[in-house]
Specification:
Blueprint (H helix, E strand, L loop, with lengths): L3 E6 L2 E6 L4 H7 L7 E2 L5 E2 L12 E4 L2 E4 L10 E3 L3
Parallel strand pairs: 1-7
Antiparallel strand pairs: 1-2, 3-4, 5-6, 5-7
Bound molecules: FE2/S2 (inorganic) cluster.
FE2/S2 (inorganic) cluster binds next to loops.
């Protein structure tokens, strides 16, 4: 697999290596790779990387998805926080 993929994370253009997960793209976007905010206001980021902890929930093109289980696609729109 080669090339790059361009997607939007909270309105910011992010370029990642093709085949990267959305969790990896969150990290590339900057900061600590925060995916959402807990009900107590704490930042949450991908933890397990295998679809178990649910800490990486984001909205992708308007649908709730796990960032660690989703491969980036060209033009994808990712929104963090819930
Ligand atoms: S990082 Fe645990 S479910 Fe995605």
């Amino acid at each position: 697999m080669s090339g790059e993929t361009l997607l939007l994370i909270d309105g910011q253009l992010v370029r990642v290596t093709a085949g990267s997960s959305v969790a990896a793209a969150l990290r590339v976007a900057g900061g600590m790779g925060v995916a959402r905010t807990s009900v107590t206001g704490q930042p949450r980021a991908p933890f397990c990387g295998m679809g178990v902890c649910q800490e990486c929930r984001v909205l992708i093109d308007g649908h709730r998805r796990l960032a660690c289980q989703t491969v980036c696609a060209e033009g994808m729109r990712v929104e963090t926080s819930e």
